[in-house]
Amino acid sequence: xxxxGPKRAAALEARGIATAGDLIFHLPARYQDxxxxxxxxxxxxxxxxxxxxxxxxxxxxxxxxSRWRRLASGWLNVGGRQIRVxxxxxxxxxxxxLPGGERVLVRGRVAAAxxxxxxxxxxxxxxxxxxxxxxxRPVYRLPSIVGQRLFAGxxxxxxxxxxxxxGGAIPDDIRGETLTIREAxxxxxxxxxxxxxxxxANGESRGHLALAFDELFAFELALSIERLRSARxxxxxxxxxxxxxxxxxxxxxxxxxxxxxxxIDEITxxxxxxxxxxxxxxxxxxxxxxxxxxxAMIRAIECGHQAAMMAPTELLAEQHWRGFxxxxxRLGVRHALLTGSVTGAARSQTLRGLASGExxxxxxxxxxxxxxxRMRGLALGVIDEQHRFGVFxxxxxxxxxxxxNLLMMTATPIPRSxxxxxxxxxxxxxxxxxxxxxxxxxxxxxxxxxxxxVHESLRAEIDGGxxxxxVVPFIDGDEDEAKSVxxxxxxxxxxxxxxxxxGAMHGRMSAAEKDRVxxxxxxxxxxxxxxxxxxxxxxxxxxxxxxVVVAAERYGLAQLHQLRGRVGRGDKASRCCIVASGDADExxxxxxxxxxxxxxxxxxxxxxxxxRGPGDLLGARQTGALPLKFVHLIRDHRTIERARKLADDxxxxxxxxxxxxxxxxxxxxxxxxAYGFSxxxxx
Length: 683
Ligand code: ADP
Ligand code: MG
Prior knowledge:
By secondary structure, the chain is α/β, with parallel strands linked by helices.
C-alpha cells in the first residue's frame, strides 16, 4: 500500500485491509460532530463537548508506575474559565508540538477534577490557525500504530485515484435517487457539512443505504440466476404410483391441515419433474413440518429410491427416527439411525445397508455427511432446522446423491415477504396454520419474586397429570449456582415439587444419557424436566403442557418462541411462564412483555423488527453466513423487496447480463455466486 511504511501496512493487512479496495470499504466505525461549539452551560460533567479556548503551555512529566508513559497536561482558558486538559498518551499528531497560548478547539468528555474543577481527559485538539475543522469527522477502527489522520488521508487519496473505476452493481439507467458507490463512499469517509449526523451515527445515512441497496441488488440478481440454473439441473423424477404414501396418509391418527395438504401437493408436483427440487418448507413451531417430510421420504422410497433426513442434534435425529418408525413402520420400509453415538457393529451394518440400498430411510446428524457414508440411490435429502447448518453441510448432503431433490425445513420466524425475497433462489411452501384443536399457549411474564407462584402453577399442572419443562441458563454452578440445572433440580425436589419425579438434561450429558432422560420424560416416567436450552429445537412431547423459562431476558424473542413451542403440541391447553431475573431492566421487561401478545412466529418476527432489540430475527450466525457485508436485515427489510423487483426487471431486460450497462452487475454477481449462499444454495 502506497504512502505508508511496511510496518503500518502489515498492521493494516492483519486487519484485513490489504488492497486499495479493502481500504475504501473500511468504513468509519463512528463519527464526531465538530460543527457546533458547546456553550458554557454545556460544560457539565459527563457531556461530550467541543469548546474553543486558549491553550496554555502543556507540560509533560513521567507517569508514576509507568516507565515509558508520560502524563501531559495544560490549562484551557474558555471565556475566563480554566479547564484542565490531560493526556495519558499524547496523540501522535501532538508529539513534538506542544503549543502555548494558541486558540484551539478541544473535543472530549467533561469529567470532574480532583480539585472541584472540571477537566477533559484525552481530548482531541484542533488548532484554529489551520482554519476551521472538518464538520463531521470519521473515526475508524484501526491498529494502534495507524493514526486516524494518516488513515483518513490515505483513504481520501485512494478514492481520488480510483475514482471512476469504483463501480457498483446497479446500472445507471435504473439507479434513480440512489447514490453511486463512489458517491456513497465519499459521503461516508468525508461527510458533507450539512449531513444528518444522527443518520450517520446510526448507520442509516444515504451513504450506508446506498451501499446496502447495491449489495442487495447484486444478491437478488444472483439468487434469480441461481434459481434459473438449478431449475435446469437434472434431477430424479419421482412419478411412480403412490402405493405407500397414500396408505401412510390414510393411517395417520389425525387429518392433515389445509396447508400441510397444500405443501404435499406442491412437493408432489415438484418431485415428479425431471429437474431437481430445491424447496424450503417454512412453518411456525408446531405447525407439523415433520409429517410432510416423512411423506416426501416415503414418496421417494415407493419410487424405488432412498431418502435421508438430517437434523442438528442427536436428540432430534432420534426423535425423527422413532417418529418415522411409529407412523410409517407398518409400511415395511427399512429405516436406520446414524449419529455419532451409533458405533461398532450397528454402524457398519447401517453403512452397508445404505450402500446396498436395502435401507430406504435414514435419519441422522452431521454423521450422515461424513466420508464413510455412501448411498446407493438417494433421491431426497431433508434438512430439518436448516438454518443450523452451513453451506458446506448442504453441499455434502447433495454429494450423497448428486441428482437428489432437496427439502429444507425451518421455523425461522421471518415475515413471509422477506422470506420470499431472501429465498428467491428456492421454491417455498408455507405451513401457516396450526393443527386443529390446539388451544393458544397462555403466556405470562413474571419476575423472580413471583417464583413461588410459578412453582405453585407447576405443581397444579403436574398433579393434574401434565408434564413440564423448566429451562435454566447454566449447566453447573460456575456462573450462577442458583440458575444451574443441578441446583434448580435439587431445590425443586426439596421444596414445592417434593412429590414430582424430576429429571435433568443438558448439553454436556452423553447422547445416551440425554436419550434416556428424554425417553423417560416422553413416556411419562418423569413429570418435570429441568434443562438448558438443549430442548429448544424441535423436541416434541405432546403431553407437555407447561414450560418455565427463568432468566428469560437472556434470550431473543425468536428463541423464546422456539422454547415456548415445546408445549401446546397436543390438544390440552398449555402455559408458558417467562421469568425475568431480578436485575433485568425496564427495556428487557418490555421486550419480554411482547411475548404475551405475539403468539405466532410471524408476530414475534414483526415485534423483533419493531423493537430492533438484539436483532435475533435471523440470528447472528445466519446473517454472518450471507454474503452481505453492508446489509442490515432489520434496517433494510423493506428494501429487500425493492431490490428484488429491480433485479427481476433488469434480468427481464438483459437476461444474460451481457450488455455494457450490466458490466458492474455481472462482476458483482460473479462474486456472490463464488461465495456461495448459505440460504439454500445447493450448487
Ligand atoms: P414442527 O413444525 O415444529 O416441526 P412437528 O412436525 O414436530 O412440528 O409437529 C408437532 C406435533 O403436531 C407433532 O406431535 C405432530 O405429530 C403433530 N401434528 C402434525 N400434524 C398434525 C395434524 N394435522 N393434526 C394434529 N396433530 C398434528
Ligand atoms: Mg420440527
